[in-house]
Structure formats: C-alpha cells, structure tokens
Design a protein that fits this description.
This protein is α/β, with parallel strands linked by helices and about 525 residues long. It has 3 domains: about 140 residues, 3-Layer(aba) Sandwich (Rossmann fold), CATH 3.40.50.720; about 160 residues, 2-Layer Sandwich (Dihydrodipicolinate Reductase, domain 2); about 180 residues, UDP N-Acetylglucosamine Acyltransferase, domain 1 (3 Solenoid), CATH 2.160.10.10. About 20% of the residues lie in helices and about 25% in strands. The chain has 11 helices and 37 strands. Strand 35 and strand 36 form a beta hairpin. About 45% of the residues are buried. The structure holds nicotinamide-adenine-dinucleotide (NAD). Nicotinamide-adenine-dinucleotide binds next to loops.
Length: about 525
C-alpha cells in the first residue's frame, strides 16, 4: 500500500515506526520544513516534499497520515479526500464541528476511508476492558471516570507557536486529554449533556485552558466525570479510566491507561493478577504503542472496504465533548448535545495573553464578575455589584454600588450606571447611556413566580445612544428610548420615547425637547 506522511514533527516518529512495522510502501514524506522530513528518511526511504498537493499529484498514495498542527487537519484532509486518498488524521480530527462534519461528508461522497488517531483504544489494558464491557460483565454501568493528571511546562508550549492557541490547538482538553475523553465517550455512549468548568491557572502565555473538569449525562442514564490538567507538579502523574458497574469495577492507570489497577467482577472469571500479567504495557512515553495496531487496522479497513476501528465519527464525538465542555464553562450552564456550529475559535479571549478581561479596568473586591463576562478597558465597577454570565460591558463605563447586570446583557462604551440599578436580560444599552440611581427596568409584562418564562423569552428594551434615565424612573419592557432622550426622575415609561424627547410623569408623556448636551430647548406648559 502506497503510504505518505504529512507533518513530520514530534508525533511523526510513531507514524514512521507504525509504517515500518506494517511494511507500508512509503512514497513520500512531506513537511513545510524539509529538515523535519529528512529526519525520517533513513527509516522511510522515499522522496521529500514541502507541498502536500504536489506530493499527492506526483505519488498518488493510497494512504496518507496527517500529523500537522491540529488547526490544519481539516483543510489538508479535505484535499486528500477529494483527491481520492484514504486518510488517517491525528487527533483532534478538526477544531470545529463544521469541519469534522465536512470531513465525514466528503469521505462518504468520495468513497474513501477516514480514521482518527485515538490510539489508546489499542492499549492492551483498554482492549481487555473493552472485551469485558462488550461481553456485558459489568451489568448496568453506573458511572465512568476519566482522569488525566499531567504536566506541561512553558518549554513545551514554546517549542512551537501553534501550541495552546485557539486557531491551531485549543487547551489541554483538546490536546492532551482528548484521548481519555474519547475513551469516556466510547464506553459511555451517546451523551445528552455536559456541565464543564475550565480554567487557565498557570500558563498565562497560552490562549487555551490548562485545567478542565466536567460531568456528563449519558443517554443510557450513566454518569461520566472528567478531570484533566497539565498543572501537576512536577511531572506527569497518571491517566486513569474507571468503570463502575453493578457487577464489576475496573480501573486502568499508569501514565496513559497502560496498566490495570483494579479488576473485580462478580462472575469471578479472572483475577487482577491474571489480567495484570497479560495486559500491562510499559511504553517509553505517553503516546504508547497504539499507532502500530491502529495502522494495521486502518490498512485492513481499506483492503476490506469497511470502517476503521476509530472512525471520523468517533473523532467528531470526542471533539464534540471537548467543545461542549468549553461552551458550558463559558456560559456557566449545562450544554445539551448534539452540538452544532461550535469551534475552538468561539472561545477566543477567554484566557491568556489576549483575554478580553483587560487588566486595566477596576473591579472592587466586593463585586462578583462571572468568568464568561467581558469587561472593557477602563471600566470601573464599584462595591457589591454583580456582572452575570456572558454579559459584555464596553469600555470606560462606570457601574456604581449594588449594580446587577443580567446574563448576556450588552452595554456599550462610556455608560454610567448609578447605584442600585439592575439591567436585566433583554435590556440593551447603547453607548453613553446614563441610568440614574435606583431606576428600574422590567423584563416581563405578566410575571408569575410559579410559571417563570426563562431568560430567552424576555421582552427586549433598547436604550439608544446618549439617552439619560432619571433617578427612580421605571422603564416597562418592550420600549425603545430614543437617542439623547431624557426621562425625568420617577417617570414610568410605558411607550417608545422619541429621539431628543423630554418625558416626565406617570405614565410618562413628552413634555419637551432636549439637545445632545442635556439642555432643555423646548418645554410644553
Ligand atoms: N496521538 C497522539 O498521541 C499525539 C501526540 C502528539 C501530537 N499529536 C497530534 O499530532 C499533531 C502534530 O503534533 P506534533 O506534536 O507532532 O507537532 P509538531 O509541531 O512537532 O509537528 C507538526 C509538523 O507539521 C509540519 N507542517 C505544518 N504545516 C504543514 C503542511 N501544510 N504540510 C506539511 N507539513 C506541515 C510542521 O512543520 C511540523 O514539522 C497535532 O494535531 C497533535 O495534536 C497526537
């Protein structure tokens, strides 16, 4: 089988070893840095290319492996697939749901085989566990735990500029932990929802997370739990997978699920000592020995015109779980699966050097700002205020004491929001809006404590640029307050207010006009 490799960096050595073991007929090594490819020429005696399209055209390989940075997987895979070549893609299959689906669709159209390198599925210990699982030895599965406690320091990320970026990589869940996330999903099956929390504790120079944890509800009723980190001092500690069933408990461990730590089944067919002897591996690194059997299966899948052991759909499922954890953490809410229209770039600015939460704003210690809220440069937030999930506050705003900004609210630049004001979901303030002390917005015309309508169904209220709302005024939802309009203290606004209008009273009526600077230029009566 005519084989070629695109991307000859760190993980390429496992691909080259797998190609040699499987006696593939190497026809091309491709890297944009030719010296990287040359390192493997003594093992795979074949031409070197710097442009994979040229290599595809010149060599017509049957099987191409893609081991470039993750953000390039999809575009390269689509080119290979459209050229009629079978493709094995390093994990993650892609960085967005749309790209993963495009790969699946293109493969179906072109009738080519696509696989993904989740090689830990081939670890002897994992295979043994899988057989016990498929034989039904656990009975009902209650919960599955996946834990990755590794260490990646600055030197690792500095090796290549793509590492830890949203465009090319993602954080530790997308890069390091995705193997165990694949296993969690492989054993857990269909997932209904995910609640995740991610953070970047100690890697300020990367954009992605260095820690993530999640609870998964599988549609089977089983629960999944995940803990993934690259902050473990001072070195990799463990990668474990534990399955708890009504008639069995198995825990795999070691540095990358290569050993069996617990093996108890009610059927008593085998003991821990038996399985440990036969199914423990000691690989030289955390990548393990899995690439060689993965290649063997992929070659057989092409020959037999069947799906490989790890399909593009499997790759998409693991990606989906990572993205769902990211979204859940950002929105601080449980995320339902299936997930559509989500990709790593949606999380730009959450952590690291380009975090939108600018260091040059002021937030009093007594205030609470949810991690997914965005606070603009130069904005000041005074005591006991609360900015809820997903709210975006512009630059150079001032929020007084005891201000509440609801989930997802958007506030423009240069707004002044005085003490005790609540801006609820559904209310939008354009730039330079003034909200006097204790003014009130409503966001439901017929509220019922017993039958809440939910945040998504709030009635929208818009306050246009430069408008001012006086102290204690009430703005009933569904109105638009025009640009530079002035609402008098204590007024109750029940209808739209024209631009530059002065309104007072209960209900508020137009009683004059104001200019942009707040001068009253016309007053009726
Ligand atoms: N399965 C695993 O256990 C495992 C382990 C490590 C990395 N990976 C995955 O493998 C991929 C590569 O990781 P790495 O650590 O080897 O990265 P790396 O930076 O060491 O290597 C990437 C290589 O791709 C080359 N490249 C970039 N664009 C190219 C292009 N258009 N054509 C040809 N070559 C190109 C780069 O020059 C570089 O040599 C990543 O997606 C990563 O997630 C998987």
């Amino acid at each position: 089988m005519r084989y070629a490799l695109i991307g000859c960096g760190r993980i390429a050595k496992n691909h080259v070893a797998a190609a040699v073991s499987n006696r593939l007929d190497a026809v091309g090594l491709c890297d944009v840095i030719p010296e990287n490819a040359q390192r493997y020429q003594d093992q795979l005696d074949c031409p070197i290319y710097t442009d994979y399209r040229q290599m595809l055209a010149a060599e017509r390989p049957d099987f191409v492996a893609i081991a470039t940075e993750s953000g390039k997987h999809a575009a390269i895979a689509l080119d290979c697939i459209r050229a009629g070549v079978n493709v094995l893609i390093e994990k993650p299959v892609a960085l967005s749901m749309a790209d993963a689906q495009a790969i699946i669709d293109a493969a179906r159209t072109a009738h080519v085989t696509v696989g993904v390198c989740h090689q830990n599925r081939f670890n002897k210990a994992v295979q043994k566990l899988r057989r016990a699982f498929e034989e039904g030895r656990f009975g009902r599965v209650y919960n599955i735990s996946a834990v990755i406690r590794w260490n990646r320091e600055e030197a690792y990320y500095r090796q290549a500029a793509w590492r830890g970026t949203w465009e090319q990589d993602g954080g530790c869940l997308m890069n390091q932990c995705i193997h165990n996330i694949d296993l969690l999903r492989w054993f857990g099956g269909e997932a209904a929802s995910v609640f995740g929390v991610t953070n970047n504790f100690s890697h300020p120079y990367i954009q992605g997370e260095d820690f993530g944890t999640a609870i998964v509800r599988f549609t089977s009723g089983a629960a999944g739990t995940l803990e993934g980190t690259v902050n473990v001092y001072p070195r990799n500690l463990e990668e474990t997978l534990t399955v708890f069933g009504e008639r069995g408990t198995v825990k795999l461990g070691g540095h990358s699920v290569n050993t069996i730590l617990e093996w108890s089944f009610a059927d008593g067919k085998d003991s821990l000592a038996d399985v440990q002897r036969e199914f423990t591996e000691n690989p030289p690194d955390i990548y393990g020995f899995g690439h060689t059997p993965l290649y063997a299966d992929f070659v057989a899948a092409i020959a037999e015109k069947r799906q490989p052991y790890v399909t593009a759909e499997d790759g998409k499922n693991a990606l989906e779980m990572v993205l769902a954890i990211y979204r859940s953490s950002k929105e601080q809410a449980e995320t339902a699966l299936p997930l559509e229209n989500c990709g790593s770039l949606d999380f730009t600015g959450l952590f690291g050097p380009d975090a939108k939460k600018q260091a040059d704003h002021f937030i009093s210690k007594t205030s609470s700002i949810e991690p997914s809220a965005v606070i603009g440069r130069g904005t000041k937030i005074w005591h006991y205020s609360h900015v809820q999930a997903g709210a975006v506050i512009g630059e150079n705003c001032v929020l007084g004491q005891n201000v509440n900004i609801g989930p997802g609210v958007t506030i423009g630049d240069g707004c002044k929001i005085q003490n005790n004001v609540s801006i609820y979901t559904g209310v939008t303030l354009e730039d330079h809006v003034f909200c006097g002390p204790s003014c009130v917005f409503t966001n439901d015309l017929t509220p019922r404590a017993e039958f809440p309508k939910g945040e998504q169904r709030r009635i929208q209220t818009l306050v246009k640029r430069g408008a001012s709302i006086g102290a204690n005024a009430t703005i009933v939802c569904g109105v638009t307050i025009g640009a530079y309009a002035l609402v008098g203290a204590g007024a109750v606004v029940t209808r739209d207010v024209p631009d530059y209008a002065l309104v007072t009273g209960v209900p508020a009526r137009v009683v004059g006009r104001v200019d942009q600077y707040g001068n009253i230029c016309e007053k009726n009566g």
